[in-house]
Amino acid sequence: MANVVIVGAQWGDEGKGKVVDIYTEYAEDVVRYQGGNNAGHTLVVGNEKTVLHLIPSGILHEGKRCIIGNGVVLDPKVFLHEIEGLKKKGYLQDDSQLVVDGNVHIIMPYHKAIDIAREKQSGERKIGTTGRGIGPTYEDKIGRRGIRLIDLVKPQTFARKLKEFLPEKNFLLEKLLGEPPMDEAAILEEYGAYARELAKYLGHASTLLNQSIEAGRNILFEGAQGSLLDVDHGTYPYVTSSSTIAGGACTGTGVGPRFIDEVIGISKAYVTRVGEGPFPTELDNEMGEHLRQAGQEFGATTGRPRRTGWFDAVALREAVRTNSMSGLAITKMDVLNDLETIKICTAYSYRGEMLDYFPQDFDVLKECKPVYEEMEGWMTSLAGAKTVEELPEKARIYLKKLEQVTGCPVALVSIGPRRDQTIQVRNPFG
């Protein structure tokens, strides 16, 4: 029995969907523990591409139970649309395969309207949110003004809470943000219909998962976004609104830390970032555009082009520490195939001082310049390699260097988007 947490080790978009899909083979339960539909996982099975925003990637495997934990915020419209798409493709034929915790907070239409309006008013100070209402929903959760799934499926409770909370939201929309107010009756009708569909998936994640642990079942905990977007440990304020690090798997599911056996951090062989915020190794040049095109670096949720840069070992070491990572999964190695020279940032230069740590002070971080070590590229395809030993020598040297500068061993290497383009160095499920 093993319980494994998957986290993004950078600023998100590291290829977690594929890695979760690979590891799901060894798990009985796959659980999503934080975030909302501001995150997207792209999976390629055969020649078919599937993009998931809320439902755990394990849903593409027959017989696996997929659970959405209490730490997630859920947009019912997006969730039900995702279910419809999966069913059309032949997945999720048994509804008992999918469970949503009753304490999941519901993204309401006013959350999305407030999110978009705030970003519009922020101008140059904008965060770069997806406008999906994630942040305002978490605000209401913390402020004890949230509507949970367990509230939504009870018509009288939902109506009472909406009547209580909506006047404040409409005041904010009209008087401060200059947007039209929301209609209470229309929300009741729309979300009442969603509630009737969602009721069949209602369950209690903590009870189910702890029963699985007692029964010796393997559990895979699936995170969204990346460690450097964590609301407490990321590049605040340019972060998401939830706990993206491994500790969030405990608070977001009701499973205690004593039962977590492995933490695998997913990292690209380079770095990308979406939205605003500091990015020390960013390449705003021809090389950056090459990485963007070769890696197809466009958001699965928004389609926005991602910012690209060289591998940042300083930032990665921060993620290794805050997550207590036991292994790294390196993705998109193949994107570097054609490069004669590859750079790795091993330290920062700040006003003449060398820093080997990731600064908490935003003003310091945005002035940091990367200090690089150069590596020779392998200048050949990685296709067909089934083991690390079958990779070109210079690719193996690059992987060894990543282990050295991050202090974390490589557990998996992805050399292409398909399932069969994966090298497992060590299986965390044993």
TrEMBL record:
The active site is at D13, H41, K141. GO terms for biological process: 'de novo' AMP biosynthetic process; IMP metabolic process. It is found in: Cytoplasm. CDD domains: AdSS. It is an enzyme of class 6 (ligase). Binds 1 Mg(2+) ion per subunit. It catalyses: IMP + L-aspartate + GTP = N(6)-(1,2-dicarboxyethyl)-AMP + GDP + phosphate + 2 H(+). Substrate binds at A300, T301, T302, G303, R304, P305, R306. GO terms for molecular function: adenylosuccinate synthase activity; GTP binding; magnesium ion binding. Its EC number is 6.3.4.4. SUPFAM superfamilies: P-loop containing nucleoside triphosphate hydrolases. GO terms for cellular component: cytoplasm. Its cofactor is Mg(2+). IMP binds at D13, E14, G15, K16, N38, A39, G40, H41, T130, R144, Q225, T240, R304. Keywords: Cytoplasm, GTP-binding, Ligase, Magnesium, Metal-binding, Nucleotide-binding, Purine biosynthesis. Pfam families: Adenylsucc_synt. SMART domains: Adenylsucc_synt (SM00788). GTP binds at residues 12-18, 40-42, 306, 332-334, 414-416. Pathway: Purine metabolism; AMP biosynthesis via de novo pathway; AMP from IMP: step 1/2. Mg(2+) binds at D13, G40. Plays an important role in the de novo pathway of purine nucleotide biosynthesis. Catalyzes the first committed step in the biosynthesis of AMP from IMP. Homodimer. HAMAP family: Adenylosucc_synth. This is Adenylosuccinate synthetase. It comes from Desulfuromonas soudanensis. The lineage of its organism: Bacteria, Pseudomonadati, Thermodesulfobacteriota, Desulfuromonadia, Desulfuromonadales.
